[in-house]
Automatic annotation (TrEMBL):
Residue ranges of domain GGDEF in the record: 181-313
Listed EC numbers: 2.7.7.65
Source superkingdom: Bacteria
Protein keywords: Coiled coil, Phosphoprotein, Transcription, Transcription regulation, Two-component regulatory system
SUPFAM superfamilies in UniProt: CheY-like, Nucleotide cyclase
Protein name: diguanylate cyclase
Reactions that this protein is recorded to catalyse: 2 GTP = 3',3'-c-di-GMP + 2 diphosphate
Domain Response regulatory: residue ranges: 2-116
GO MF annotations, alphabetized: diguanylate cyclase activity
Length: 313
């Protein structure tokens, strides 16, 4: 462990340094408090042994400065019998221990330094353990957030899944009922998707659904929700939107999909990949979530039966 010895008596400083070097410490020296503080700012020694009385900055002042820079540094104060009260003052100011000069035994220096070094090591270990625990907690929180996100997302399209849509729709309908607001559901299905899969293969079909999910999210408001309802069925939830506004949005989405050049789209019966769309609103088409979804589903099948690539509501 690195250690800084501070004393304006060169002979005493050298003796202490020799003893502690023999004990395995890496010892640096300073002749004044100012010199010690400058050395400490350049390299934060975990242990400092300083005389209490020195020309210029005293050991007590140095102790305060060191603790301001690094509260975890252990400081041992050296004092004479005549200034024992000052040593007690140093302990109250945060010093780890004190040594009384002249020393009864050089072994006493080693013992005090060893105890202070052990405490410094324990403090450093505790700090590292705390840092590891904080990192582990952050990683655990990130993992939990990821799991929560995965639980509400569709694995293929990354849109919200069927369950999350149903839960959100229930909350939105309850909010609209309470505050006498409107909301709308846009239900859509890819036209002739089975034929596309049979012609081009399921991997291409998956790519189509993934691309389609991106088209659905274009130009949506932050409050809107897009979800994969199941298979090739998708749904949009539009808060604060009545039937008229929802029909406009639905037709914009339908046109966006019809204009997109999906690979192999020319082989579809309409010469391109298209969707059929049904629209229903609260409270116009139902008083609870299931009624609204059923109404949107009926409109979707009406769009299918009327020729596909159209919006009904």
């Amino acid at each position: 462990m690195e250690l800084l010895v501070v004393d304006d008596e060169e002979t005493l400083r050298n003796v202490i340094s020799q003893v502690l070097t023999a004990d395995g410490f890496s010892v640096a020296e300073a002749a004044t408090g100012e010199e010690a503080l400058e050395a400490f700012r350049l390299r934060r020694h975990p242990l400092v042994i300083t005389d209490i009385r020195m020309a210029g900055m005293s050991g007590i002042e140095l102790l305060h400065q060191i603790k301001e820079h690094n509260p975890e540094t252990e400081v041992v104060i050296m004092t004479s019998h005549a200034s024992l009260d000052s040593a007690l003052t140093a302990l109250r100011a945060g010093a780890y221990d004190y040594l009384i000069k002249p020393f009864e035994s050089l072994d006493l220096i080693s013992a005090v330094a060893a105890r202070a070094a052990e405490k410094a090591r324990l403090v450093a270990q505790n700090r590292e353990l705390l840092a590891q625990l904080q990192r582990a907690n952050r990683e655990l929180q990130e993992a939990n957030d990821t799991l929560k996100e995965m639980a509400v997302r569709d694995g293929l399209t990354s849109l919200f899944n069927h369950r999350y849509f149903q839960e959100t729709l229930a909350r939105e309908v309850a909010r609209c009922r309470r505050y006498q607001k409107e909301c709308s559901v846009i239900f859509m299905d890819v036209d002739n998707f089975k034929l596309y899969n049979d012609t081009h293969g399921h991997p291409e079909g998956d790519r189509l659904l993934s691309t389609l999910s991106g088209l659905l999210c274009e130009h949506l408001r932050e409050s809107d929700l897009a979800a994969r309802y199941g298979g090739e069925e998708f749904v949009l939830l539009l808060p604060e939107t009545g039937k008229e506004g929802a029909l406009v949005t639905a037709d914009e989405v339908r046109g966006r999909v019809a204009r997109h050049l999906f690979p192999g789209g020319e082989s579809q019966p309409l010469g391109k990949v298209t969707i059929s769309v049904g629209v229903a609103s609260f409270p116009a088409d139902g008083g609870d979530p299931s009624e609204i979804v059923e109404a949107a589903d009926r409109m979707l099948y009406r769009a299918k039966h009327e020729g596909k690539n159209r919006v009904c509501g």
